[in-house]
Amino acid sequence: MITAKQVDVLNVGLLLLSLLVAFYLPFQLFLFSYAVLGPLHYLTEIRWLSKKQFFVANKRWVVVFLIACIVIIIPSLLRLPIFTIVYNIPLLKKVLTIVSRYYGIIMLGCLFFSAVLVLLKQASNYLLWLVISIAVSMLVLKYLPFAYIVFGVFLPTIIHVYLFTLLFMIYGNLKAKSLWCTVGIVALILTPFIIILLPVNSNNYMLSDAIKAILFESGFNKLAIYLAKIFSADDAVLRQPVLSNIGIKIQIFIAFSYTYHYLNWFSKTSVIGWGKQLQTSHLLVIGCIWLLAVMLYWYNYIIGFKVLAFLSLLHVLLEFPLNITSIKAIIVKLFY
């Protein structure tokens, strides 16, 4: 067992290590972390969240997130070669297209409903609040077009791995009041600015055809494209954002955020206590699923990505109540 202080010191080291490797191998590190560290993180965190009652008063309503995840993921799964015949059924294809179009509404609706489950613990009619959450989400996305990018693209990706990790660290430090944890928080806040100031030359980052294929077939490149639109108005950059200087810095940030998000979770085993709650049988099941997931990614990264997308998105949705809890605790501490 290591002390809380040692964990905080370790986290600062992991942060610096993640940034260093991301600077030299931004694309390779991201793909490795997503395929190897990601599945293990999903499995262990979902198990821990279930033990914590998902940080809500009424655990039964968490099924809403499960249903939402299934609805969102089905269109992607049906695009796998083995479902080609089914996917090409005109009526089904039209329904799946509609589902994909309203992906942002589903994500934002789940976030709003998470706030309801956390903040209104004595609510008598959660179904009504679920309908209200969806209605509000529809209005937000209708009148604020950019909200789709924020909640449909950034929320389950960069907001989840960077901003929510930062909030979780701040939330934990409200009780611990650790100097080294504070150092880690400040370092995490400064990291995007450090990356912006880093001198990079896109000519030094050569990508193999295999990596390019994975980035484009999986849609990972879209995250870089949307971020590039925020930081640059240069048409040349926007045409090839992944391989531009700005694109390289964006990818460094993405690789760093995902890698540190996973490593931060694993390093907090003794502090959060999620490792203590895993019995031998649980470890065996998680270990076997994780090994199969890694083997699937190794066999075919795109197939692995699509099959594991369910677990990836599910852990994001199930973490929403914890994110709301963290935000609430920080606000209460600062203003009350």
Topology:
Layout: H1 4-24, H2 26-51, H3 63-77, H4 84-87, H5 90-101, H6 103-119, H7 126-143, H8 146-176, H9 179-197, H10 209-218, H11 220-231, H12 235-239, H13 245-267, H14 269-272, H15 280-299, H16 301-318, H17 320-335
Helix pairs in contact: 1-2, 1-9, 1-13, 2-13, 2-15, 2-16, 3-5, 3-6, 3-16, 6-7, 6-8, 6-17, 8-9, 8-13, 8-17, 9-13, 11-13, 15-16
Brief account:
This protein has helices at residues 4-24, 26-51, 63-77, 84-87, 90-101, 103-119, 126-143, 146-176, 179-197, 209-218, 220-231, 235-239, 245-267, 269-272, 280-299, 301-318, 320-335. The chain has 336 residues and is an all-alpha fold.
Structural commentary:
The protein has 336 residues and is an all-alpha fold. Helix content is 81%, strand content 0%. The protein has helices spanning 4-24, 26-51, 63-77, 84-87, 90-101, 103-119, 126-143, 146-176, 179-197, 209-218, 220-231, 235-239, 245-267, 269-272, 280-299, 301-318, 320-335.
